[in-house]
Amino acid sequence: MDLTGFLEVLWFTLQVYRTLVIELLLLLGVSLSFLWARGEEVDRFAFTYLNSHLPYHPRLDRAMHLVGQLGTLWMGVLWMGALFLLGYRTVALIGVGGMVLLWGVVRTIKTITRRERPYVALDDTRLIGYPPTGLSFPSGHAAQSFFTAYYLAHELGLEWGRWLLFALAGLICYSRIYVGAHYPRDVVAGVLLGLAYGYLLVRIVPEFPFALWFS
Hints:
- The chain is mainly α.
- The chain is 73% helix and 0% strand.
- It contains ten helices and no strands.
- Helix 8 runs antiparallel to helix 9.
- The longest helix has 25 residues, at 89-113.
């Protein structure tokens, strides 16, 4: 293949997967922003404002803590289990496999970035609930919730329901800042990772023979 042919294939690939490319570039940009000292200041300022300076109430604290738990891996597995019992076996089994793999991806990135949680780095953090363990970047709750929203909206062919899924995912993301578990950049990176991963999963998995085992 000559250079012209290679460029044509590359251009075609970028056109087909342009959404994925854009999301990955944005994720890379968020990650590289750690090299910009001013970016850290903005991130901490935004976190402090959203976590400590907005009006809050004990009942809202409890509600946001509970909302955040909806973004855990185990809660996602429960949702997929319900879909399995309702007859959506292929969607449920591939969804669980995707969630577990995404959990591993998030853990790997956390190990590389080694970013501490806000309540560890900032003395004035308003921490709600038990202190979360592990590292901070990216947010696993954000990644799992937006992956789940994208995946289910695509696989179940939801129309109005997709907006409810994404609204819930957005609320889960905000709750992670509200309870003091993550910086805004952690959440943004998690959202981009979850969307990119979901986009990739729904396009690649059907091409593999093992997907037919579940049908």
